[in-house]
Amino acid sequence: MRNTTTETTGTTGTAEDAESEDAPVRFDTRIAVLLRDDLETWQRLNVTAFLVSGLGTAAPEVIGEPYEDADATAYLPMLRQPVLVFEGAKEILTAAHTKALSRSLATAVFTSDLFGTGNDRDNRAAVRAVGRDALDLVGLAVYGPRNAVDKALKGTRMHP
Question: Which of 5, 77, 118, 148 is in the most buried spot, having the most CB atoms within 10 Å?
Fold first, then answer.
């Protein structure tokens, strides 16, 4: 499959971009995940999956159309744009969290306490039990205007 998604500024992937199937789809928004740099590989994958799972409910515009293969087998829709994954030290994560909230970006958090729970109810209770400034963040996802997301994640680096 040919990837026609680009990382340039422009429209949001609407009808104007659909004029030519070969034209790149451009997004003025960004989906980004920031992971703490001391996580094990399995933790990075788990945290990323959990964090992006909330975006479609809070920002339904990020969900694309359902997929279908050549045999007409139906598949679930996925995010309509790339998810960029970054990493940084604990202090960088805390600063990015503060910046994301101050910019009113759609934000999901994953704290170290969630590695010890096994369901959504206990996950929510673990987050609710700790004040915003005391959360032991291991990951966060943000969605919003490209420039605001970039500013919130300043000082981070792309995940290797």
Answer: 148
Output phi, psi for 47, to 5 deg: -65, -45
Phi, psi dihedral angles at 54 (to 5 degrees):
-85, -15
Per DSSP, which regions of the chain are E strands?
A: 29-36, 67-68, 74-75, 83-88, 106-111, 137-145, 157-158
Cα R_g (the chain), whole angstroms: 17
d(C-alpha 35, C-alpha 156), whole Å: 10
Question: Residue 62: what pLDDT?
Answer: 92
Count of other CB atoms within 10 angstroms of residue 38:
10
Token pair for residue 117?
């729970």
* 3-state SS, residue 11: coil
Q: How many CB atoms sit inside 10 A of residue 29's CB?
A: 18
Q: Which of 111, 152, 139, 123 is nearest to 52 (CA)?
A: 139
CA–CA distance, 140 with 106 (Å, rounded to integer):
10
Flag residues of the chain having pLDDT under 70: 1-20
**Residue 19 confidence (pLDDT):** 53
Contacts of residue 42, Cβ cutoff 8 Å, sequence gap at least 6: none
121 φ, ψ (degrees, to nearest 5): -60, -50
Look at residue 20 in the predicted model and tell me its pLDDT: 63
- 55: closest CA among 35, 74, 82, 90? 82
